[in-house]
């Protein structure tokens, strides 16, 4: 190899080295990373929404894995529409049904209130003092009253978020009996008591009660009346028709449940035994 050839080869190597160095510098050079804009267009998560399979599982119907199968087979509906989409989210207030029956992931609660006068039986706001104010601290579940008591009526009122118990009360064939202590503005005539016991028609509609009697040891102004209706409109209808005024109306029992140990304006949670008995009525 001549000195000239060696120099040329060295020169090539030097040039090649410079070229490699240039590539290295480009590779190692600091480049501004591309901004990931995918998160910018992502919808914010609503903390109050819950995945449908979790909702179904939390309601006690089945496990979350089994819920996926039930959803896929069309057994679950939301607001009246069958949902088979995995990952579907349920919003607060949505009505979810499994195999036709409404379900709720909240813990079931059963609260018995001894209502005083002056409180409306409603869940609506802007109605002044309501029974919901009296049970505001009773449960974190969204409980509602079963049936109604007028603002000036008092006595027992049951609250729950259990649709099965609600259906038991509102079932037109069976229902759950409630016992009322009623004070009238004058003595109830025996013939009128017999009418109430036997049932009678008002504007073509039969008005009937389970039981009716004078209250033992009291005047003939005080009546015990047992009905299965969830409201007390029928009681008003009876005495309006017979020309009596109701001065005091007190629900003293719901099925086997009584006001014992519940001061006026206070509430209690049903015991397991009370609940089981109620379910068997």
What features would you describe in this structure?
- This protein is of the alpha+beta class and 281 residues long.
- It folds into 3 domains: 50-102, Structural Genomics Hypothetical 15.5 Kd Protein In mrcA-pckA Intergenic Region, Chain A, CATH 3.10.290; 110-172 and 258-280, 2-Layer Sandwich (Alpha-Beta Plaits); 178-254, Alpha-L RNA-binding motif (Alpha-Beta Plaits), CATH 3.30.70.1560.
- It is built from 8 helices and 17 strands.
- The chain has helices at 3-28, 52-58, 64-72, 131-134, 163-170, 190-198, 233-241, 272-280, and strands at residues 50-51, 76-78, 81-82, 89-90, 96-98, 101-102, 110-115, 144-145, 154-160, 178-184, 200-202, 205-207, 211-214, 222-227, 246-254, 257-258, 267-269.
- The strands form 4 sheets. Strands 7, 8, 9, 10, 13, 14, 15, 16 and 17 form a 9-stranded mixed sheet that branches. Strands 3-2-5-6 form a 4-stranded antiparallel sheet. A two-stranded antiparallel ribbon has the order 1-4.
- Helix 2 packs across helix 3 (64-72).
- The chain is elongated, with a radius of gyration of 36 Å.
- It starts with a helix and ends with a helix.
- The model is unreliable at 9-27 (pLDDT under 50).
